[in-house]
Design brief:
It contains 22 helices and eight strands. It has about 525 residues and is an alpha/beta fold. Strands 2, 3, 5, 6, 7 and 8 form a six-stranded mixed sheet that branches. The chain has a two-stranded antiparallel sheet with strand order 1-4. Strand 7 (about 510-515) and strand 8 (about 520-525) form a beta hairpin. Helix 4 (about 55-65) packs across helix 6 (about 90-95) and helix 16 runs antiparallel to helix 19.
């Protein structure tokens, strides 16, 4: 497409908008308004309260400046991991954006895309399966700012809407897949691979099942489509053989979880949407009840009409397969974690095309109103917790300007929690802890070395440690410090660098001077690291 044709398309937008039916225009205005509303917290507050996010921002910054002339300290400590691992996308996007925007703005742009694309991907996916019946796409606003996004799993969070765009693309074009469309589908799949491996594996499984069930009476068509996906099968097999087979623990399936009421509660309460507090359970459980009622009505009508086997029924099968994976898969393997939570996030959205929506127009409007009210209530709860956490994060980062360029920084703390005192869900042992990796902000925009950079110990992030640190730590940032129960933020520095956090804490009084303090924060500078 040329620039001239793009400009021509843009000039024709007002005319095309007027040609749309009034209900379609109203629907698009509503979607646009809700998208802006759900993205707004990202821009209203200075910091997005995620657990791993600060580490990703820091490493994306390092990636963006790594080859600069004045980045010799970064090059001394880090080495690029240039393998084709499935976790590149978020880092690449942010590092490129940082060539134009400040790091925090680059993160906000990425977060806006993640949150905004989720509902759009569901509208596209459902509309591709059931043209004109994408009413339940509004569920996407309920899922857009999910628990795993607040955990800071940015690449995974990008992969979820990409998954539904790819699945929708296949369903829309499966009857007329030519070489060009097969190439586009494969490119979408590769993009998902470079986002997250679990999403890629679930997508390949979904495409395989949908191909077999859609063309079960056309075996030659099935074989042809599966042959077209051979490169994707090769990538999947290569990853599994390279990583899963070398995991000393192997894959320990948890069949007993089918009888675990906590697993059922997590599933039926859609706790993959709960981030900071049990207050999230009110809207999330209502989401589960609403979807359960729609599923019950759908099954009743399909059994009564003897329409069990239909195109939409494929997605009930997918839901069932994903549900089995949710129950039996271990919490983590091959250095990856939160597997059950991740699978849970796909389950209800993939079921949506199966659900019956041919109700009276007032019932349809009622369903939309319920979805909107629930999504806004979740948003209001998030606002309630974003405000104090943003205030605390501003306090945490209030000493950044005092850090000289190209210095080594370590974070220590006695409490990294958001101070939300509620019981956690079953698949993870804590709520989101926004201060766990916040120390990495102290290395952004100043060429600093963060000894709390946990990413360097995993082979699916852009950098590895080139050397272990020894000698003086220039700056130590202490948060809510209690010397009787201190830990290093972000990483196990004893295992990574052979440093004892308790010895470092004891040396604060003798080897360091306090250069900045607030109610919860102290910033120390080593006496040998006087400013120039």
């Amino acid at each position: 497409m040329t620039i001239k044709s793009i400009l021509s398309s843009l000039r024709s937008l007002p005319g095309r908008w007027k040609e749309l039916d009034l209900p379609v225009r109203r629907k698009r205005i509503l979607i646009c308004t809700l998208s802006i509303l759900h993205i707004s917290p990202v821009w209203v507050f200075k910091y997005f309260p995620s657990q791993d996010g600060p580490a990703h921002v820091y490493n994306s910054y390092v990636l963006s400046v790594f080859h600069d002339e004045d980045s010799t300290r970064l090059q001394e400590y880090y080495k690029l991991n240039l393998t084709l691992f499935p976790n590149w996308l978020a880092h690449i996007c942010m590092s490129l954006l940082m060539k134009i925007f400040p790091p925090l703005i680059a993160e906000k742009i990425l977060l806006s895309a993640i949150i905004g694309l989720f509902p759009l991907s569901l509208f596209y996916f459902i509309g591709a399966v059931c043209k004109g019946k994408d009413l339940l796409g509004f569920v996407g606003f309920l899922f857009s700012d999910h628990y795993l996004l607040h955990m800071g799993f940015y690449s995974f969070s990008i992969s979820v809407p990409l998954f539904f765009f790819a699945l929708g693309y296949f369903m829309k074009h499966k009857e007329d897949l030519n070489l060009e469309k097969i190439a586009i589908l494969n490119l979408l799949c590769l993009l998902i691979y470079f986002s997250h491996i679990l999403s890629f594996l679930l997508l390949i499984l979904s495409l395989t099942l949908l191909t077999i069930t859609s063309f079960r009476r056309k075996p030659k068509r099935v074989v042809a489509l599966l042959v077209c996906m051979l490169p994707l099968y090769f990538i999947m097999a290569n990853y599994l053989l390279t990583n899963i087979s070398t995991d000393s623990k192997g894959i320990e399936l948890k069949w007993e979880r089918f009888s675990d009421w906590k697993a059922w509660d997590y599933l039926l309460s859609t706790k993959s949407l709960m981030s900071f507090t049990d207050a999230h359970l009110i809207p999330t459980r209502l989401v589960g009840i609403m979807l359960g009622m729609l599923l019950g009505v759908t099954l009743y009508k399909r059994i009564r009409q003897k329409r069990i086997l239909s195109q939409e029924s494929q997605f009930l099968l997918l839901f069932g397969v994903f549900a089995v994976f949710y129950f039996i898969m271990p919490g983590g393997m091959a250095s990856g974690g939160w597997i059950n939570d991740r699978v849970n996030l796909f389950m209800f959205p993939v079921l949506l095309p199966f659900l019956f929506v041919d109700y009276h127009k007032y019932i349809k409007r009622g369903i939309v109103v319920v979805m909107i009210i629930l999504s806004i209530s979740r948003l209001a709860i998030n606002f309630r917790y974003y405000y104090p956490m943003d205030r605390n994060m501003k306090e945490y980062t209030s000493g950044i300007e005092l850090i000289e360029k190209n210095k080594v920084v370590l974070g220590i703390a006695s409490d990294a929690s958001p101070n939300v005192m509620d019981s956690p869900p079953f698949t993870h042992i804590e709520f989101v802890e926004p201060f766990a990796h916040a120390i990495n902000y102290y290395g952004v925009d100043n060429g600093g070395i963060s000894l709390s950079n946990y990413e360097c110990k995993y082979n699916y992030f852009p950098f590895d440690w080139r050397i272990k640190h020894s000698g003086v730590i220039d700056y130590i940032v202490a948060w809510k410090l209690d010397k009787s129960k201190v830990f290093a933020c972000g990483d196990d520095i004893m295992r990574t660098h052979g440093l004892d956090v308790h010895e470092i804490t004891e040396s604060l009084d003798t080897d360091y001077e306090l250069i900045h303090s607030t109610e919860n924060l102290q910033v120390y500078r080593h006496r040998a690291a006087q400013p120039r």
